[in-house]
């Protein structure tokens, strides 16, 4: 796995768009092989490993259940590698996104947009598979990058994909939400929502984001909280209980109380959002009545 990651990292670090595309596909293919239950495919030989990004799309494949995923040897190895900076894929993809944003002004053929969409798709999957990687978005420089991708000059597809990544970056990570608020993330979201140039599809996703933002926050227990440093010490053997707790309410037994310092009440967030948007009370009422994010069994 280190060899495949190294090859992918080299490609996405390039300024050659063809190599970047290849590297993103290699990462996507690796994630797909980890997450999908494939048919009876033959193991890759060293000679084929350079093309290991391509899975056999002709086979019928379905997502693995979380319980099975956490016991999968490939996933456990992937998770272990993500604990250190050297092999953390999310940081490499974020760096690639930054370069792609810098290249956007020099390309007008739409290829750069496709690469950005591919990078965002990979990033969303990485943040779901390895929740501790979300902590990188506690840094303003990376959160600002997501807000830049929501700028009106970006195409609706990029705006929609960015919103999905933003939700994943904030999920169960209150410190990231506080960073998002501190750099005027709410102003960015609401300005885009109120703009006449924003497409209806993007506005719908923005509305869904606002519902998500207004959800009550709960402290993250020490057992399932992402480490704030990239030198993470979480064992993949604890994944089952950590995933099972992802939608549960924490009972409040955080001995240090550090996670509570990052928590805002729904009323506080409603007040913050009310600075930029009217009828926030109506959104909160809808949220309470419809419960759109009620946890569902996997």
UniProtKB/TrEMBL annotation:
<keyword id="KW-0132">Cell division</keyword>
<keyword id="KW-0131">Cell cycle</keyword>
<protein>
    <submittedName>
        <fullName>Cell division control protein 14</fullName>
    </submittedName>
</protein>
